[in-house]
Amino acid sequence: MRSFTGALLLLSSVLTTVNAKLILPPSFAPAPVFRNINLLRSIDLTKPYSKEVISVIVENVSKEGQTEYYMPFAADEVTKVSFFEAGDKKAPFGEFKVDEVEFDPQSPTQYYRILLTEPLAPGNQITLQVAIGKTTVVEPIPAEIEQVEKQFLQWTGTQYVASAYVTDKQKTKLKLPNNEAPEFTKLTAKSDGTSDPTKVGSAFTYGPYEDVKPSSGAGKTVKIRYEYTHPVIVMEKLTRDIEVSHWGGNIAFEEKYVMTNAAAKLKNQFSRVKWAAASYYGPPTSAIKALTYNLKVGSIGPYFTDEIGNVSTSRFRSNMRESHLEIKPRYPVFGGWNYTFTLGWNHDLREFVRAKPNGEDFVLRVPLLEGPKEPVVYGDVEIRVILPEGATDVKYSSPIPIIGEEHFLHKTFMDTIGRTAFKLRFSNVVDEQHHKELIVTYHLPKTAGFRKPFVIFTALSTVFVFSWIVSKIDVRIGK
User: 3-state DSSP: the chain helix, strand, coil percent, rounded to 5?
Assistant: First the structure.
């Protein structure tokens, strides 16, 4: 958390949590204080991005307690990392603090540092679990297909988990969305004569490999081409506005999307006849036909517009158990096609804001993202939070790293000095972050509630007095 003093009125202090890069000298190299006894890497490829879960038994081979564990990445791989979480196997992910280390921008190897909550004593072991989300690790092969043709994606990765420490034993398991994998990299057969990899159903297993040295790097390049019967949804840009109104007891959400389908492109022109014929038997398609949103129970007044205007192809179902919104673009969005749209809704403020005992300090807890339940990758994300006029001492905490922020006053109808607002920017985010919350605290004096009635009363009184004065002016022409 850090604070700032702004020149803008009423923006006295704003705090944020950011995973800042740790700067180390160019000669830095992790000390060989750990040994990986057994490592299992599980890669989930059922979404258009990969989620790696690494479970490793780590032993302290030094003579002192250790708290810093380093994981190396190739420089071009670091830019693909969407999230990096670590923890003990007995605790949830995110228990251990993670820093991105920067010691030499020109180096082909970069590092992430994991800080253990307690020093690991010499000779002791811990089962470390790491979750890593990576984007742009799959691509459609072939890049163009017919309208009714199957789509295949290709994942490119490595044989080993790159490590700064000696690994006694490790293997990699890949989970595919189905059994259709016509092409995959075959490595040298194992010592027992079995093939590498082994395939069981929709899962591939590379290894196990023994006594892997840090000098071995990530080993050989591995590629797997598999069938993927879903669109590859990429939100190139998302602008999410959250407007808090104590006067109306309402919180308004509005999201503007610039959406692209990164699936295989159409080889020929789109055929409406083929599309209509296929709609009867509903075969799998890589086109985006609809998006579904599971909003918070109690959401009201949803609207769906695009650059033309209101889009009527949407359904909203709300009851005591769910608020389910389904939207359909004006046209099916095939690979390489774009679609820009806006989505908004309202909700009772009491579900998101809690007042402290003094009645003037408030805590706002809102989901960081509320995108569609379909697998989605977000390029640039911009979140604007607009607080009531008169809010001061604003503080916020973000569950993911912030790459940019801005603080300003937002003026709307019947405002005087403007509403306190701030803007946060993120990049390379995946739908795994939907469940995380943005927490905002602020101070709003009780007298601020009289600001708008006073403005309205003053405005009407001014108009009345001005009208009375004008009525008393004698505008008749004299004799």
Answer: 10, 50, 40
- Which pair of structure tokens corresponds to residue 478? 């004299």
Query: Facing residues of 224 across strands?
Result: 155, 184
Nearest to 434 by CA among 382, 379, 366: 366
User: Is the Cβ–Cβ distance between 326 and 291 less than 8 Å?
Assistant: yes
Beta strand residue intervals within 75-197, DSSP E: 81-88, 97-102, 109-120, 125-134, 138-140, 144-145, 152-158, 167-175, 183-184
Per-residue pLDDT, 18: 33
3-state DSSP call for residue 220?
coil
Residue 144: Cβ within 10 Å count: 13
Chain-centroid distance of CA 114 in Å reads 21
Beta-sheet strand order (sheet of 314-318)? 291-295, 323-327, 314-318
What whole-number distance in Å separates Cα of residue 219 and Cα of residue 215? 10
**Inter-residue contact 227 to 264 (CB < 8 Å):** no
pLDDT tens digit sequence for 423-465:
999 999 999 888 899 999 999 988 776 777 777 788 889 999 9
* 208 cis-preceded (ω within 30 degrees of 0): yes
Contacts 24+ apart (CB under 8 A), 107-110: 107/26, 107/75, 108/74, 108/75, 109/72, 109/73, 109/74, 109/75, 110/72, 110/73, 110/74, 110/75, 110/78
Tell me the CA distances in angstroms from 362 to 334, 352, 354, 356, 452, one per residue in order.
45, 10, 6, 6, 20
294's tokens:
């599971």
In the 8-state DSSP scheme, what is residue 457? H
pLDDT tens digits, residue range 3-27? 333 333 333 333 333 344 566 666 6
Task: Please report the sign of the dihedral spanned by the C-alpha atoms of residue 76, residue 80, residue 86, residue 89.
Answer: negative
Q: What 8-state DSSP symbol labels residue 474?
A: -
Query: The tokens of 258 are what?
Result: 């610039």
Q: Rounded distance, CA 252 to CA 301, Å?
A: 10
Residues 6+ apart with CB under 8 A from 269: none
What separation in angstroms does the CA of 411 have from each of 248, 255, 386, 421? 17, 19, 10, 10
Alpha-carbon span 196 to 206, nearest angstrom: 6
